[in-house]
Structures are given as structure tokens and as C-alpha cells.
Amino acid sequence: MLPSPDLAPVYDRVTWVYVNRDFSGTPSDRAAERIMLRFGLSSYPHLLLVDPGDFTVLEEIGRSKPQLLSALQSQRQLAWTKAAVDRYQRAERKAIRLEQAQDASQALAALEDEDLVVRTRAVEIAAKKRPEALASRAARLLEDPSDVIRFQVLAVLAEHGNEKLARPIERLLTSPPSGSKNPNVLRSYAAAALAACGDARSIDALAGLATSGDANNILTAEAVKGLVGIGQRHPQTRSRVVALLVQAYPAPGRTGERLARRVHEGLAQLTGKKLPFPQPYDAAARERLQKSW
Question: What is the per-residue pLDDT for 187?
Fold first, then answer.
């Protein structure tokens, strides 16, 4: 899309910022990552129109020249202010200090910082250094508007658990926030976290996803994982979970077989039965398995 003579009329209307990570961990790579984090991005590509006064995303622009032209021509004139520059530079210095120190106490103290990038770095460090402490403070962090923060907190909860958060995690699974840029990934993290945080009520949120048969969607496999975890921690739910997992054997196929193996392993863990996984995994084998449990 760039450069193009068709875009010449709008070249001077904005400041263009190209951000690309090389994942080297160098200062320049970390700086690029902080820009991505500031706008809650966890994947490429995105084309954002941003207000330089407060970093509000005005519009996520489509990937065609007409869409870009329309977006830029419809916006009023916006400009940096000294206050915005000062605020940004203070936040950058604080985030860099956290990166360099890698100190758990400093990170925990910064979990509710007003700046998104500082909070994200704090969560990242706390997840590595003090995951139990992060899990105990997760309720507020699950409400953060950043996907990246929610991903990290849910990953910690999947390891360390906190059943008090079963209902908020279920809400992320069944009704992901409208501002999420990766709602399917967010739901996948939530489903996995319910393995360690869910209770009997959580089965309802997972059941339809686990039995959907959609072997191409990682969310299906994570929902299976969530059900298995609940069944292991809450023995009174086992019969229901086993019945759902029996339904969850997907149609045959390459991705179907991978999901079928995960379902099969979960059933073995919950029942103690050791049934060999059939080769080939075809329609007849699927039917036999479903009758065997």
C-alpha cells in the first residue's frame, strides 16, 4: 500500500510510524514491543489511526488505499501536546526501569500503574517471579482493556488456580470484551484457565465448545482441557464430564485425530481405564470409542 501516488494527498496529514519487531530482545526491539503493547496488539498486521494527544485509537483502518484515504480525510486535525509528550516519556522511563531490574517487588507495586505499558511489563515480570502473588491479585487485572495483560494473567491462573475467579473467567469465555483484538485467543486462554479455576457451574460454559467438533479451532481443545481439569478437581462432576468428552470425539481427519487423542487422554485420566487409541482413527473407530467408555 505504501508508497503510492494515490496516497500523496494525505502524506502530510499524519505522522507515519512503522513498527516491526525482530524478536532479538535488543533495546530497539523492546522499544518496538512497547509501542505494540501501548495499543494492546499481540499480532501483525494492524494499521491504526491514533490521537497523538492521548494515544486513543481513533480507527483500525482496513488494508486498502480507499479505506486509508477515507479514514484520514474524515479526521479532524490532531496534534501532540507537551503534556502528552511528558506523560509518554515518564511512562517509557518507568517501563525500561522495570525491564532492566526484573524485580518482583517493583513489578507487584506497578500492577495498577496508570500507564498500560508499565502495567504490562509489571504483569510480565510478576508472572515469572511471583506467579502465586499475581494469581491472588488477578481479579482487577482480568478487567484490563489489554489482551496481552489478560493473556498473561489467564496463563498464570491456568497453572496456579483461583476458584474465586471462576465467574469472571467464564464471562471472558462466553462474552469476550468488544475491544478485544483477538477474542478467539482470549477465549482459548480462559477455557484453559478454567481447568484450574472452574467449578461445577463452569461446565456449562465449556460444554458446547468442547463438543463442537471444530478440530481446527484451538478453542475446542482448550475447552476439553478445561473440562478435564474440573473433572479431576471436583469428583462429583466426573460422570457429566465423561459423558461430554465421549461426545467430544471429533470427525476423523488429520486435525480431528489430534483432538481425538486429547479427548482420549482426558477420559483415561478421569476414569482410570486404559483403552488403546485406534489406528486408523476413522468413523468406525470413533463409534467404537464412544461406546467403550
Answer: 98
SS3 178: coil
Q: DSSP secondary-structure letter at 212?
A: S
Place of cell 482420549: 264
Q: Cell 504490562 maps to which residue? A: 120
User: Concatenated DSSP letters for 128-159?
Assistant: HH-HHHHHHTHHHHTT-S-HHHHHHHHHHHHH
Residues sharing a CB contact under 8 Å with residue 18, sequence separation 6 or more, in sequence order: none
φ, ψ (nearest 5 deg) of residue 215: -75, -15
The count of other CB atoms within 10 Å of the CB of residue 6 is 12
| Separation of alpha carbons 60 and 43, rounded Å | 14
Cα-flanking dihedrals φ and ψ of residue 276, to 5°? Answer: -65, 145
Query: How many Å apart are CA 223 and CA 210, to the nearest integer?
Result: 5
The span from the CA of 209 to the CA of 5, in Å, is: 48
Q: Residues 134-141: contacts with CB within 8 Å, 24+ apart?
A: 134/108, 135/160, 135/161, 135/162, 136/162, 137/108, 137/111, 138/162, 138/165, 139/164, 139/165, 139/168, 140/111, 140/112, 141/111
Q: Which residues of the chain have pLDDT under 50?
A: none
pLDDT of 189: 98
Q: Report residue 247 as a C-alpha cell.
A: 461426545
Query: What SS3 class is residue 4?
Result: coil
- CA terminus-to-terminus distance, the chain: 56
